[in-house]
Amino acid sequence: MAAPVLAPAPGSVGRLVRATVLAVVVLLMAVALSVAFGSRPIPLGTVLDTVLHPGRQDEIGLIVLGNRVPRTVVGLLAGAALGVAGAVMQGVTRNPLADPSVLGINAGASLAVVAGIALFGLSGTAAYLPFAFVGAGLAALLVYGIAAVARRGLSPVGLALSGAVVAAALSSVTTAVLVTDQALLDQLRFWQVGALAGKDLGTAGVITVPVLVGLVVAVALGRSLNTLALGDELAASLGQRVVLVRVVGGVVTVLLAGSAVAAAGPIAFVGLAVPHAVRRLTGPDNRWTILLSAIVAPALLLVADVIGRVVAYPGELQVGIVTALIGAPVFILLVRSRAVRGL
């Protein structure tokens, strides 16, 4: 039997389309802010002229093409990856508290990258990427295993508690490795908290393929996640291959979260806050939630990055700190809400 789809109510399709268009406009505005604002504001006309004439070698050309455009592109990819990873995790686990940072996946990827650098002298995003995938996957399995044998089991709060324990433990090990190697600490000081600064287009090129593959599979998975929301038994009776959907969802999450961590470090709470925000517009339909998360999350990340550049002038507050300040209150509200019972 074909899996049912949560069809939008009559008249709601237009509302969802309008919400998508609005999200795209907001994203374009965030991109404009990202390339125009910083320690030295540059008019958008000058930015556009510089992008269209990339041979420019003056100070403005170096700022725009050497700094702001690459970090904006990395922010777009990492933001979309984190937002969609959170949406998929919440759909697969039916857990409104699911997020790569809350469930320890980012911490696992981060520890694996740091260990790879310390043990094998890794350098560059291309070398970080496979270690980030392995670390993220092992952390996900560890969290799931701990939650499965714990008293609260695989409930939303049980998974969140298991993830918090694993994230704290892995982050402690990462910190221990860093503090014993001053050179490594200096190298990863900003990456450890999540940063877009100092990225180049090579970084974007490394993660483009895994992020795009993850996004495409995630969008295709939306229909199955809608069926999974009905409960495992009912989903199975309707012909849904529940285990396969969860495995594919887990692989997509590892692919997206690992790519984001390898490129920008363990940025927290984007995957938690954004799906909940867009779900107020999309309702329970995961297809629309995933689509809008891929648009809204990079907008949030870029705006947070711009805020970090402005509030700490002439220095810079790394984007991972800003997103944590935004996401922590959201997490607290969700824990206190009845919504933690499940999606």
Task: Please describe what this structure looks like.
By secondary structure, this protein is mostly helical. It has a single domain, classed as ABC transporter involved in vitamin B12 uptake, BtuC. It contains 13 helices and no strands. It is globular and about 65 Å long. One of its GO terms (cellular component) is plasma membrane. One of its GO terms (biological process) is siderophore-iron import into cell. Belongs to the binding-protein-dependent transport system permease family. FecCD subfamily. Pfam families: FecCD.
Mean of all residue-level pLDDT scores: 88
How many DSSP helices? 13
Instruction: Find the CATH superfamily.
Output: ABC transporter involved in vitamin B12 uptake, BtuC
Structural class: mainly alpha
How many separate domains make up the residues?
1
Largest sheet: none
Name the helicity range. over 70%
Counted beta strands: 0
Order of helices and strands: HHHHHHHHHHHHH
Organism: Curtobacterium luteum
Main location: membrane
Membrane topology: Multi-pass membrane protein
Keywords: Cell membrane, Membrane, Transmembrane, Transmembrane helix, Transport
Features:
globular; 0% strand; single chain; ABC transporter involved in vitamin B12 uptake, BtuC; 343 residues; mainly alpha
Short description:
Helices cover 74% and strands 0% of the residues. The chain has helices at 12-36, 44-52, 59-93, 105-120, 125-149, 156-179, 182-188, 201-228, 232-237, 242-264, 270-282, 286-311, 319-336.
